[in-house]
Design a protein that fits this description.
Layout: H1 10-13, E1 19-24, H2 29-38, E2 42-45, E3 51-55, E4 58-64, E5 70-76, H3 81-90, E6 94-100, E7 106-111
Antiparallel strand pairs: 1-5, 1-6, 2-3, 3-4, 4-5, 6-7
């Protein structure tokens, strides 16, 4: 599953957040951002502890929370939702992901 490096495609920049999730057992967003980088995604610090990672079909914020989890939220091409889950599985991450549609309707939920 090669990832297209570069900025988020224009058709997705107009969407409000449609994906959110929790990456379980990862205290630091930095280590998660590094995993995405190794797979060809761009990454940048977005706050003291948070990171923005992205490719042409997905752009998400990674923010640590109290405990041992990292929150994930942003935009994904809905047809690539499974690809995001597959990427997390390849990285050995335990996760919960939710995909939302118009009017914030939950379309899909995945656990890995």
């Amino acid at each position: 599953m090669p990832d297209e490096s570069g900025d988020l495609a224009p058709e997705w920049t107009k969407l409000s957040n449609n994906v959110c999730g929790v990456l379980h057992g990862h205290r630091e967003a930095a280590s998660m951002a590094e995993r995405f980088e190794r797979l060809g995604w761009r990454s940048r610090s977005s706050s003291w502890c948070g990171y923005e990672v992205g490719t042409t079909w997905c752009e998400v914020e990674l923010e640590p929370v109290d405990g041992q989890d990292v929150l994930l939220n942003g935009v994904v091409d809905p047809s690539r939702f499974d690809d995001l889950a597959t990427l997390l599985i390849r990285c050995g991450v335990t996760f919960t992901l939710e995909l939302y549609g118009e009017n914030d309707n939950l379309l899909r939920e995945m656990h890995g």
